């Protein structure tokens, strides 16, 4: 690289001889009339050189009449700045190897020439780069004086370089808007901050401090004009709203909608799952949906219901993991007036009755208490049931879809789930693959949720940086699509401009376990709202306890001193499941 000062080795000269003191005239007799540089070393190791050409032996001059000049010696591997300092003091410098032996010398003039050549290359490159780039670059020095101002800066800010160079930047811009000055003071770079220097101008700003030997000697600011992108985004956003409105109108006119169209993703894995679900929806059979938390089991259950039941048929979900065992039976079967004493004496329809003519969705079926499993099995077999405290049987005319993220067959082996109920539910099984096994869907889902939340929060359509997309693709998503959806919602809510490039509001995990925020730095420079910080901490505590308890929610809830329902609700809210 010609613009870099080349290695010192290239400049070392080796036409020299070293003589020890005292000198004798033999030196002249043997070396006279040569172009060798003669160094003289005294008994304390100091070096001198003879500062004139050696005369011919025939001149009979005495060696003592020759002009001796003091010089310094230094190891050739010393820092270049030290070499240059000594060289400018003495003009000539003896270079030593690691064992202190002289191996050559440096001459000020040759080093200077080399430095000047490199400087000229550097200047030529530097000027051409600044002339060629079409972004706005401004450089100020430590006195806040403008040193560099490119053509694009002239265009964006309507100030010519003749006018601004050499002047203080604060003479041209409002000091409160000058992020460069902050960077000059605190040395913190920042990237891709959106800024609006004029009402008709949007720019993305990158600022970087220039350091020389740890000292900040200036700041570079690069501004990219994104006004046209912002305008286009705005137009796109308006158009999308119009299209969405039209879509809604068209949907109203269409005779039938595809209930499965809300299940996004085009990977082979999800396509297979949807195909299987459609086939299952063509029957009245009981369906068991298996898959990790947040993979979309309920979404599929609802699509099956919409597909196979008539419009207006009830869809009744019940979360078997969230209802305390003591209330479960009355929730499921309902109770007759007078069945209990106290406030609940008026009677209430149970979920089974509410589901008449439609679908009963038994979510988290693996968490259903054993005694209730027996009762549910009886309902499924007899197709009729009694409400708690009731004497009149009610018809059980509904289709059952059950779902769980637990290995039901293992629970059967452990005696925690009834085998007969398992086979009763497991007529058709649909397995929903976790997101990490269908990474192809991540990008589509990201855009789908971005679109959804941009509309919901009335924010212009967001663009996610490539780097963040990569982070999303590399994440294992232990909370699956729910976690991804929550992450995008947070990003949209907290985004301050149209480019989302930071994941500070997303807890990306780098292993397959639950995601835990371990980076304490989030608590220093990126503190957000108290609510947000509390949620982050709660997320961390719950995940850690779940890990300690091997994922067992009941013992996790006990250890945390909260009910299982509360734990379940908090996990859902925080996107852990
Ligand atoms: N393929 C998908 N396309 C769009 N959204 C999806 C998809 N899959 C899941 N979601 C969304 O992810 C969230 C979680 O989905 P859902 O509740 O159906 O998961 P689940 O497997 O039933 O979870 P859990 O086991 O915790 O009950 C919901 O907001 C749902 O709308």
From TrEMBL:
Task: State whether keyword Ion transport applies.
Answer: no
Record-linked CDD domains:
AAA (cd00009), PAS (cd00130)
Query: GO annotations under biological process?
Result: regulation of DNA-templated transcription
Question: Per its UniProt record, what Pfam families does this chain match?
Answer: AAA_lid_14, HTH_8, PAS, Sigma54_activat
Gene Ontology MF annotations: ATP binding; kinase activity; sequence-specific DNA binding
Q: Which UniProt keywords apply?
A: ATP-binding, DNA-binding, Kinase, Nucleotide-binding, Transcription, Transcription regulation, Transferase
Q: Does the keyword NADP apply?
A: no
The PAS domain is annotated at 122-182
Q: What is this protein called?
A: Histidine kinase
